[in-house]
Automatic annotation (TrEMBL):
InterPro entries: Fumarylacetoacetase-like_C (IPR011234), Fumarylacetoacetase_C_sf (IPR036663), Rv2993c-like_N (IPR018833). Keywords: Hydrolase, Metal-binding. Signal peptide: none annotated. GO terms for molecular function: hydrolase activity. PANTHER family: ACYLPYRUVASE (PTHR11820), ACYLPYRUVASE FAHD1, MITOCHONDRIAL (PTHR11820:SF7). Its EC number is 3.7.-.-. Residues 60-255 form the Fumarylacetoacetase-like C-terminal domain. Pfam families: FAA_hydrolase, Rv2993c-like_N. It comes from Amycolatopsis speibonae. This is Fumarylacetoacetate hydrolase family protein.
Amino acid sequence: MRLARIAHPGGVAFASIEGDGDDAQVLEIAEHPFGKNPNFTGKRWPLADVRLLAPILPSKVIAVGRNYAKHAAEFGNEVPTDPMLFLKPSTTVVGPNVPIRRPRGVGRVDFEGELAIVIGQPVKNVPAARAAAAILGYTVANDVSARDLQKSDGQWGRAKGFDTFCPLGPWIETSLDAADLALKSEVDGVLKQDGRTSDLVHKIPELVEFVSGVMTLLPGDVILTGTPEGVGPIEDGQSVSITIEGIGTLTNPVQDV
């Protein structure tokens, strides 16, 4: 199932996307999408008649740094023995086609295309062998980073924490084996990243086990799994598109504040 959050003529709702292209339909879900069988209201619209929002509003976004060996190497870093965690505020989250806003006075701002895990139930200390049961599905993410601040601050909270610095979308795919998916990032149509999730140093079940050993994960929380090599700067007026096999494409324009 493809789960989305939409703005429709009557308000905002979770929905399931059925079909593709011009025939795609949006079926409204009552309340929330968590649980095995979401309840539907009976309302539906053509996908073209609604606006896709960020597919989830997490209580927290937990990101994993240097989780692709070649990306660590392109910045002269070693791969950490344990997953390197940092947090992005929930206010960084925006949906498809919402501008990434480059703050005033900030130098280089980079895109980072990533696979995002969306948690489906409250979990704490879940073992890797049972991690799949805790996952609602997967979506596409862009871990936007103010690179100069990341270097100067040492800690990454400011560099990764500006509003709009975590686009998510276009929806959550709940029926997907994410172990080996193609991930490609383009800036103005030029290919910049071309990786596969099979190259993750710390794999998805391991990440869920490790993160839930640190903090309780709540329904809707998001884990960003890391980015492949090829990250780079984005400028005012450009457009970033990140495509993950089996999910779809997340596109956001870039805008100076």
